[in-house]
Amino acid sequence: MAARKPYEPPAQSVAGQIVDAVLMLVLVVFTLYLPLLFKLAGGGTTVTETANPTWDALGQNAAMAGQWEKLGFTPEKAAPIIGTRFDYSFNWTAVALTAIIIVAYFVFMFRYSDREYREVIAEHFDDPPKA
């Protein structure tokens, strides 16, 4: 029997590689910018207002207050900074949708590349044909 021909990956031109690289760059930038564009990134912040700010009312002990004062802050100036909290809540539907998209992408890639994977695995791990 004839020996199995080694796997030869499809050749791609330099122009094709450049187009692929630029396309990937555009997709990455678009993917990162899209949530910002549609205001989907981050839940924003919440601000706790303090009517008469003192270091005690802001929850700062003497050591903390001393550090704020070394930076030139008074309780009135530090109150908006101390009272600002990031909102870390998220949408379970968006998390599930993201997980579905990622799993679907990998399933698609494995199914699309199945033949090539099998050829490479067969080339490297199958027993050689017997004469």
What does this molecule look like?
The structure is a single chain. The protein has 131 residues and is mainly alpha-helical. The protein folds into three domains: 30 residues; 44 residues, no CATH class; 42 residues. It has a two-stranded antiparallel sheet with strand order 1-2. The longest helix has 24 residues.
Task: Give the topology, please.
Layout: H1 14-37, E1 45-47, H2 62-70, H3 75-83, E2 84-86, H4 92-112, H5 114-125
Q: Which terms summarize this structure?
A:
3 domains, 5 helices, 131 residues, two-stranded antiparallel sheet, mainly alpha, 57% helix
The succession of helices and strands, N to C, reads HEHHEHH
Count of DSSP H/I helices? 5
Q: What is the overall shape?
A: elongated
**Separation of the first and last Cα atoms:** 6 Å
Give average pLDDT, whole number: 87
The largest sheet is:
2 strands, antiparallel
The helical percent reads: 55-70%
Number of domains: 3
Number of strands: 2
Radius of gyration: 29 Å
Low-confidence stretches: none
Which sequence of strands runs across the widest sheet? 1-2
Please give a quick description of this structure.
Helix content is 57%, strand content 5%. With 131 residues, the chain is mainly alpha-helical.
